[in-house]
């Protein structure tokens, strides 16, 4: 088993560092006798590398791991129209400069794995796929209440 904590540094409207006894959630893994690793959650390749090591460890029968991906929530805590963002504007702006998708795209283009036009085309295709999925969901009938527990397993 691999536990992944996407630590966005905030708990609803409160900065996590003001509410947690430990700055690093990965440090809690030691209490369970498992490794806890911290990784820059905005670095796609770094996350892949750490996850790959945890997967290899698990497949070798060496037990679970905890990966703490330090990142930042890009939106407010809720999606209500009247939601108030209590995070400092300069903090939000600084983290938005480290958007993992933009950073990864820039890295791929810099290393000539992709060209900007291919990236833009892919983004357009993904946006269309999302729009199509939303349209399908909005046009689909609600399921019967009896279906609510289909494929649900609880022990």
Task: Output the keywords.
single chain; 155 residues; alpha/beta; 2 domains; three-stranded parallel beta sheet; two-stranded antiparallel ribbon; 4 helices; 5 strands; globular
Topology:
Blueprint: E1 2-7, E2 10-11, E3 14-15, E4 36-40, H1 44-59, E5 65-70, H2 89-96, H3 100-110, H4 116-139
Parallel strand pairs: 1-5, 4-5
Antiparallel strand pairs: 2-3
Succession of helices and strands = EEEEHEHHH
Query: What fraction of the residues are assigned to beta strands by DSSP?
Result: 5-15%
Order of adjacent strands in the largest pleated sheet: 1-5-4
- Uncertain stretches of 5 or more adjacent residues: none
- What is the helix tally? 4
Rg, nearest Å: 20 Å
Task: List the domain count as a whole number.
Answer: 2
User: How much helicity do the residues have?
Assistant: 25-40%
Report the biggest beta sheet as strand number plus sense, adding barrel if it closes: 3 strands, parallel
Q: Separation of termini?
A: 18 Å
The number of E-state strands comes to: 5
**Chain oligomer state:** single chain
Please state the structural category.
alpha/beta
Mean pLDDT: 93
Write down the overall geometry: globular
């Amino acid at each position: 088993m691999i536990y992944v904590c996407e630590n966005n540094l905030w708990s609803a409207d409160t900065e996590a560092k003001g509410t947690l006894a430990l700055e690093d959630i990965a440090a809690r893994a030691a209490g369970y006798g498992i490794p806890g690793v911290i990784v820059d959650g905005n670095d796609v390749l770094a996350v892949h590398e750490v996850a790959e090591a945890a997967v290899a460890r698990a497949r070798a029968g060496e037990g679970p791991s905890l990966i703490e991906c330090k990142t930042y929530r890009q939106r407010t805590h809720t999606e209500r129209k009247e939601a108030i963002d209590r995070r400092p504007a300069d903090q939000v702006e600084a983290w938005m400069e480290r958007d993992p998708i933009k950073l990864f795209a820039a890295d791929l283009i810099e290393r000539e794995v992709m060209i900007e036009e291919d990236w833009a085309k892919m983004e357009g295709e993904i946006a269309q796929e999302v729009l199509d999925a939303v349209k399908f969901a909005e046009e689909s009938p609600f399921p019967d209440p009896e279906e609510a527990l289909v494929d649900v397993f609880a022990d």
